Amino acid sequence: MHPEFTALDQRKLRVALLQELAAAFQEAQPAIVMSNMKHIQQHTTRQHELCRALLQLGEAKAELPPVDQASQTAWRHLSQELAEIQPKVRHLGRVQTALLRRSRRAMEALACLLTCTALTYTLPSSGSAR
Amino acid sequence: MSSGLFSTLSVAVSGLLAEQDALDVTSNNVANINTPGYSRQRADLVAGDPVVIGQLTFGTGVTVQQVESLRDPILELRIHQETQQGGSLDALVAGMQQVEVMFNGNNGGDIGTLMSNFFSSLQQLSTDPASLPLRQGVLTAAGNLANGFQNTARNLETQRTNLDLNVTQSVQQVNTLTAQIADLNGQISSLENVGKNAGVFIDQRNVLINQLSGLIDVSAIQSDNGLTLTTSNGTALVAGTQSFDLSTQLDVSGVQHIFSQGTDITAKITSGKLAGLLEVRDQKIPALLSNLDTLAAGLATAVNTAHKGGFDLAGNAGGNFFVPPPAGGQGAAASLAVATTDPSLIAASSDGSSGSNGNVLALAAVHDQAVAAGQTPHDFYSNLVFGVGSDVSNGSAELDASNLVLQQLQDQRGSVSGVSLDEEATNMIQFQRGYDAAGRMVSTINEMLDVAINLGKY
Question: What is the value of pTM for the model shown?
Answer without folding.
Answer: 0.83
